[in-house]
Structures are given as structure tokens and as C-alpha cells.
Amino acid sequence: MTCDQPRSEIVFWIAAVVVVFWHLGLSSLHGSEDRWAEVTREMFLRKDFFHPTLNGEPYFDKPLLGYWLVALIAMVTGHLNEWAVRLPGALCGLATLWATHSLGRSLWSPAVGRTAAWLLLTTYGFFSWTMRGEADMENLAAITGATAWYWSRREKRDFLSYFVFYLICCVGAHAKGLTAMAVPARKSVRPIS
Length: 193
Prior knowledge:
Layout: H1 4-21, H2 33-46, E1 53-54, E2 57-58, H3 65-77, H4 82-107, H5 110-121, H6 124-130, H7 136-152, H8 159-175, H9 179-188
Antiparallel strand pairs: 1-2
Helix pairs in contact: 1-4, 1-5, 2-3, 3-4, 4-5, 4-6, 4-7, 7-8, 7-9, 8-9
């Protein structure tokens, strides 16, 4: 490791935090973000976090984890606002960057890991989705995280390796749906030789 590598890591993570958190709660909710906020608000009003409603009607469009993350942040901060609705996606964006960096480092080299993370960070779609209060970033973080975990531990066939892999997949499935189970499992299957 050269002297410039730790410095480039620090520069990357500072840039990532600035990009991901820049204006996170300043714009009003738009698209389906208001639905996420309203479902969470009704959970607090009804004191029922297991049966989501929208306008008083049962609403089981998405798994509960995304609403629970927003609720947790609202409980910690004392406010259910734009920032609280978007913070889970921003944090999962950072987790996705870390997993991308780790995956590139595991498969190729530290330089490839850094380059891949920079490329992802500077992609408009990634930047846009990290600033939205929806479950897509939670799903992406789980898929990328499970894949990175698998490739970093592919030679270790112990209980912990398998348990953590499937735990990450299950958390992703509870955020958005079963794609978080299917995609990493498909990418991690070895052909029979």
C-alpha cells in the first residue's frame, strides 16, 4: 500500500458523504416518497407497526422494513420529515459504495475497487436514488452487500459465512422484495464441475 492509497480512500469517503447527504432534506417529498411518509405517519397514529395503512386502508404494497427504518429515524430525531424519510436510502447508498469497493478489491485489486466506487458515486442514477425516500437503495445495498460478502468469503465454507450471506439477503427481501434473495444467490452459485 502506497502513501497515496489511504489519502485517496479518505478523499473518496469525504466526497461520498458530501454527495449523498447534499441537500438530503431540503426539497419537498415527490413521487412515491409521500406515500412512504404517510404510511409511516399512520403507523405512529395507530400505534401499529405491523399492519401498514394508507388513508386508513390496509396497504401491503411493500415489505415493512423500509417503513420501520423511517420510523426508527423519526423516533430518534423526534421528527417525521423529508430528511427522516430519505436518510435510510442515503445510508444504504454509502453501504452500496462500500460493497462495490469491496467487491472490486476482492475480485481484482484495490485500484479496481476504488475506480468502481468512484464510477458508481458519479453516476446520476445512483446519486438520484440515494436522495429518494423509497426502498430501492435498501434493495441495492442488500444485493451488492450479499454479493461482496460471498466473494470475500467464497473459500470459507463455514456456518458464519452462509449465515451472514443469507441474513443480508433476507434483510434486503424485507426492504423491497425477493429480488434481494434471487440476484445474489444466482450470482454466487458455482457451476458443478
